[in-house]
Amino acid sequence: MLLTKAPDTLPQPTTAAAQILNLLLPHHRTTDQGCAPAEAFPHQLRRITDFVREGAPIVFTLPGFPCKSPNPAKTLGHLPDMGERLSLGFLDALCAQIERIHPPGAHVVICSDGHVFGDLIRVPDEHIDAYADELRALIREAGLSHLSVFDLRDVLGDLPHDTKRAHVHDRHAPTLDALRAEVRTDAPTLALYRGITRFLVEDTADFPGTRSALQRECRRRAYGVIQRSRAWGALIADHHPRAVRLSIHPQPVGAPKFGIRLLDAPDAWTTPWHSAALREPDRTWSLMPRARAQRLGRLVHRDGRPSHFERSDPDGQPFPATVRR
Known about the structure:
The radius of gyration is 21 Å and the shape is globular. By secondary structure, the chain is an alpha/beta fold. The longest helix has 29 residues, at 211-239. It is 45% helix and 15% strand. Helix 3 packs across helix 5 and helix 7 crosses helix 10.
């Protein structure tokens, strides 16, 4: 039997997997210091290698894009804006880069999780539906063919939202006692708990009690958010068992989930749905609370809705309060 050597233009699966992971590494969302090589991410390398060996499109799942923060000091409203638009474009472009290494391509399934814990983050379900529907519209209108949106409606149809939440929680969530024990003993889980508690405190704009009472309530709700988030992750794994799991939360090097930064922000926890986008004079973008962005620049509308801010020009000339496009 004559054995022929594979063409040099077809990289070995492990080599191609490392090249693909190297495209993600500059965007790793983590609180670890320094840069780690692809070899430090064995979970991701194994899963990418499986897709490469099969000549199949690489599937990434990304829980996130739930809904906008209800705090008007942080966001421009309850619908996606330039922050989401840029983030979706980034994810689609990243898949296009992967396709140059791995011709079958790549696809990101955005697992919009707002309904999973909408009652805990105090966002109306109709706002969550409108947000996810607009995400789909943005993907369709921009021709972002490497992206799709998956949410509880794809799993449980038109059941009442509370029924869906109870179904997911009862089937997949860890017990509260187990989670409390993990927070006490596992540093990444403790950091996640603290980060979610901080977001819940910041997102509450009209709490009638004291600051300490608010913090106590948010600590309680943070456990529920993590329980539901874990449950959603388990459900996603059931529906996409071979996918490479991405995360919008910081993840340590070598973790089963790969934290990915969508846009530049002052800390590793900031996301488009907790902030507003600001365009700098050099045309770069960053995320920050709406109140801060408003002090730095002018508001720009797109399609009749607030979209983002543009920083004042370098010579200090004032801009009008609102610019429409």
